[in-house]
Amino acid sequence: SDAFQNSTSRWNPQGGILFTPFTRTTLRFAYFQNLQTHFSERVAPTHLYGFPLGQNESEMSHSTTFSLGWDQGFTNSGFLRSYAFWRDRRTPSLDFSEDPTLFDGKSYGGRIAYNQFLTDELTLVPQYSVAHDLDLFGLRHDHEVSLALRYVHPRGVYVTLAENFLRQTGLLGTARTHVKAYTTDLEVSWEMPRKIGLASLLSLIHI
Q1: What pTM, to 2 d.p., does this model score?
Q2: Which residues of 133-148 are buried (b: 16+ CB within 10 A; e: fewer)?
Q3: How far apart are CA 32 and CA 53, in angstroms?
Q4: Per residue in 93-125, is it b (16+ CB within 10 Å) or e — as a string?
Q5: Model confidence pLDDT, tens digit, residues 17-46
Q6: C-alpha span between 48 and 54 (Å, rounded)
Q7: Reduced to 3 states, what is the DSSP secondary structure of residue 102?
Q8: Which range, 32-36, 68-72, 194-198, has the best average confidence (pLDDT)?
């Protein structure tokens, strides 16, 4: 339709603060607004100080997000990274009319991960995340736990083996949903010389 072809532009202010009160302690704060354009046409940055600007947003959604992170090194062989976020979003309906109905949604949650260096090349990473999301399609509450083993070769080869568990509850319309899933992920990639690119050599997911 003609309404679907109309162009949309919007200022998206973004800013953040990095504060290091101690040698091994870093606090991160970010505020940003984000208009989710069509994926194939997106050229804007995807992260700000390690915080994702968008998380599975519908096209043309406009969101405002506050994020706070805490990074803490404990020893020379391990560090903890955590963050929490609050996001308000406004999503147009899917009728493609000239004056679409706007739906106000929100999401909040956080993640904590500990990186334990077993050797110079091998790292063990336990991680937990929680997210609550209300959008155009329904209500969702996720708990996810993962345990990953990561290998980094000096020549730029990256290998990650991860076990993941997801527990999801929510509402899809008026129907209650409840999902439990276990996955095993294997990823192999290679960073090209002079950092000119990253090639994904293998990606397997077993459910």
Answers
A1: 0.79
A2: bbbbebbbbbebebeb
A3: 7
A4: eeeeeeeeeebebebbbbbebbbeeeeeeebeb
A5: 999 999 999 999 999 888 777 654 555 566
A6: 10
A7: strand
A8: 68-72
